Amino acid sequence: SPTKNKTRFYQWRLTRGEMAQVLARGGFQVDDVRIIHKPQGTLRWLQHNVGLDPSRQVSRGLAYGLSLVLPAPVVGHMVLGLARKPLA
Fold first, then answer.
1. Is 62:52 a contact under the CB 8 Å cutoff?
2. Which of 86, 81, 83 is nearest to 18 (CA)?
3. pTM recorded for the entire structure
4. What tens digit of pLDDT does each residue of 56-75 get?
């Protein structure tokens, strides 16, 4: 039977600066690093911290509205890095 553990698990979580460092250490020229998916991150925050059901339209609407005013580093769901490997 599935466990009832409410602990959240993140496989990997990086800040924008950490992502840029990882890419640079790998020999990539970093063009941009940004936080994306604010509505999804806000929805997850509302689910885990307020107990809203993420499948309900009202929860999705609230998450979208809040994501427009909350800062990306607080609610962003993913970090996207745009980089290229210089030609040798």
1. yes
2. 81
3. 0.68
4. 999 999 999 999 999 988 88
